[in-house]
Amino acid sequence: MSAAPDPAPPADAAPSGRGETLLEAAAAHVPDRPDLLIRLAREARAAAEAEGDERTAAQAEGYEGFGLYLTSDHEAALDHLTRALAALEPLGDLAGRSLVLGALASVHVSLGHYDEAAAIALENLRTARALGDREREAWVLTIMGNTYVELGQPAEATERGEAALRLFADLGNAGGQARAHTVLGGALRDLGRYDEAKAHLEAALRLATEEGATLTEARALDDLGWLAQSRGDPAGSLDFHRRALALREAIGNRQAQATSLIHLGRAYTALGQADEAVGVLEQALAIAAETGAEPRAAQAHEALADAYERSGRPAQALRHLRAYSRLREALLSAQARSRIQTLEVRAEAERAHQDAEIARLRTEELGAANAELERTLVDLRAAQRGLVQAEKLASLGRLSAGLAHEIQNPLNFVANFAELNAELASELRARVDAGDLDGLGDDLDTVADNAARVRDHARRADGIVRSLMGHVRDVGGKRRPADLHELLEQAVSSVFRDAEAAPSGGAVRVERHYADGLGPVEVAPGSLQRVFVNLLDNARYALAHRPAPPDGEAEPPTVTISTERYPGGVEIRVADNGVGIPLAHCARVFEPFFTTKPTGQGTGLGLSLAYDIVTGGHGGTLGVVSREGEGATFTVTLPTGEGEGCRE
Q1: Model-level pTM?
Q2: Domain assignments of the chain as residue spans, ordered by start
Q3: I need a surface site. Which of 75, 213, 251, 497 has the fewest CB within 10 A?
Q4: Which class is 480-639 in CATH?
Q5: Hey, is 15 helix, strand or coil?
Q6: Are 310 and 272 in contact (CB under 8 A)?
Q7: Domain 1-151 - what CATH class?
Q8: Where is the composition biased (Pro residues) (predicted)?
Q9: pLDDT digits (tens, 9 = 90+) for 525-566
């Protein structure tokens, strides 16, 4: 439930033109009058452009973007903020750039791009310290604290909140102190230190009310309501959330309204008022969908699943639980990818800087120092590659652990249906003993239906956990010489043992084009066979879902397996004439948890695991060539260490 802080207006000289005057007026309405902020920022930009004042025009566009963020128009906000940042960069306006970076970080928090927000905030913190602007530094620390609260890292959030509070106190900024108190209140609540959290949130409410900081006042009220709920007092939380909602509606911050509605719904659910809970939660879900705030949509689905389950409507509960799981998987996967990409970009930037330094030393003919730096660069690059790989594995581990935690919800359904069956069985026993057999068949049907639900939920949970645990295991294994053709035949037998028929007609045909004299290759047989099974199973699925062509025109569903030796390695190809892969998906097929299969038919881990086994476990490559509707070809290369040379 983070929101952007109240940023200070540019600390520049007195306005010299109409554009600057309007911009100063716009800054006075941050953040409690976003409508007026947007209008004045647009007028300031038009005036500055007419006056040829590029700097003011760019800053005004940044303020307009911030106002759009406050009204939860995230797409438009990102567009304006990105353009403002690009315009300010060549002007060397660090102060204006810092304001835009702060707003960008807040937008990314709202959209669930937490690692991106953290990276931007870190960059902004360096800028604020370079400027010597302690107030700006405090606001950046507040944004970072809010981000860590959203990420579920309360210890880091506490550290940033305390640092921001100290700075605001030294500066005598009461509004900033109020915002820092909300960060500390949220973090301490998550740590279970409820009394300390309450003290900070009450201080935030008092200071915000005195300063007329409506956005911060609403945040403090909402967090106090959430704290009351956490302490088992849902009735006490209702008043706080209603007051927060009223303030947020007055400001026009749609995403913050969704947050208040979600908390109200949870309080109603805890009080047993299911109809009221469903009503406000459906409103929250509609707002979240409208504003593109996926973290809030996930929370609304989760709360609706709980409300429907408690009201005895398991079908509706299950529908929302599935929607929650899909969104949660997407958010966690996006976080992991964002984290990996950020690390790789930083490593690339560091390498570029080091290369430039080497060039400078060469120009100055410092041969000895240059040789030493080159050796250091080799070591650094090796360390960076190790860090990137370690971060990828760590991100995947965190992602797997988070998703495994989400399995608790379907397991709750298993427990509930099992408990219902136990109670019903006891009742049936009593009726049978009493000779009352009326309606016995209907009750037995209910028992069977509940048992089927238990089985389905348990199988789904078991399948996901098995896939996750298989993915985080070591992708290597003990190597020994193995016959690749034998491993391929075992995989074919495993996948096509039943000779499944494709909808287009006819059983799947498997063609082999094996190279003569391939000989044994030193591999980890168990791991590599998993690769072949995953690739063949992917081909089987593609064949089973290709559209049925007109009679007499269909090429039979075919999988073609070929092997080839080349100097220094071997190549294995698995091709099919199935549905193919859309161009937009080709770059993502090896990402963990990316899948186009319906819910329940795949976790998106098979090809990702195959990629890690081939590249990380065997030092080879795995790639794909495909065109939608024309099949796909997956190519595996494995080094053998024999001979030298290049492939044709």
Answers
A1: 0.47
A2: 1-151, 315-406, 408-473, 480-639
A3: 497
A4: alpha beta
A5: coil
A6: yes
A7: mainly alpha
A8: 1-12
A9: 888 888 998 899 889 988 888 776 655 556 789 999 999 998
